[in-house]
Amino acid sequence: MIRKLTAALLAASFVTAGFVGTAEAKSLVKLATLAPKESPWGKVFQKWKETVEKRTNGEVEVQWLWNGTAGPRRAWSARSRAARSPAQPSRP
User: Fold this and answer.
1) Taking all residues of the chain, what is their mean pLDDT, rounded to a whole number?
2) What is the domain count for the chain?
3) Of 33, 5, 41, whose CA–CA distance to 17 is shortest?
């Protein structure tokens, strides 16, 4: 179970839609998962979101897209790459 959870968190870190600046100088990080919000994984992801927002004093907002609502992995991977600004380095 721990391996699966670790793998899921690692995978989630690779599917970020990038940082999108807002007028309040905050950053929004969108993450997609197949896990339902009320599942054990969903609860861990929600706790991680709260921790990130608390440790950054609200400067980073995390938004989860639950239950595969972002579509197939290939679709949101492509959107993630397209959403990066030219100033951000692309990953191999």
Assistant:
1) 75
2) 1
3) 33
